[in-house]
Amino acid sequence: MNISRYLLVFCLAILLGISFSTHAAKVDLAEAVNKAGKQRMLSQRIAKAYFFLGNNVRRDKAKKQLKKSIVEFKKNHTELKAEISNQGVQKMLAFVDIAIEDYVDLVGRPYNQENAAIILDLSETILEASQDIVVKIEALSNVDKPKIVNISGRQRMLSQRIAKYYIAYQAGFHDQDHINQLETAVKEFESALAILKAEKVNSPQINAKLATVTRLWRIIRSFFLDIEKGGLPVTVFATTDSIMDSMNTVTGLYVKDSG
Asked: Which of 42, 99, 114, 245 is the most core-located residue (most Cβ within 10 A)?
């Protein structure tokens, strides 16, 4: 695999001015932000599941999660290509077209340190592209709701990103950069949670879900602050997934309210 070819494809798309379809139907931009935001989460969830599977932690669940996440990523990707006609979004989606092929191929191979290292890097590449797509779709809207959807939806990604770097550390990836990425994700998660809890438009249902997330976070927060101590990967797997599910519900409620 040659990651530089992704850059080549993307640059050619810009330089050659690839013509993209502008016939997509009018779409709910809040829902589009939600869907694109899920791609961020899935980029991390796929890598996380690969690491848990390869390190014999919740193997059956991790295997199912890996397959389901790939299917969902591809489905969302196809829908976004059909729904959003903006040229900037379409160029980034064309870039993801290439990257996801290699990503899916790699996570389908038996676990080893070499593949795992590449998967860590590639998960970052796809996350970066997915984030750019979210930002571009969000910019198409003149209302504030998609911004709340973005912040809430990003918590889903951060829950999986934190779990990914946690299990990667347990698997022997002790690079300082990886530790820094974990610490940054923890800080961003806590900062965004505080913003969401203070949001004036929150319904009682949203507040209840955010309270659940807060309780779950308190259970596992110390694991990430003392990464060298390690241990309890099953708890991390289960709890971060529960947080992700709750934040998915919250994000859906924000989308519904925006309608």
From this structure: 42
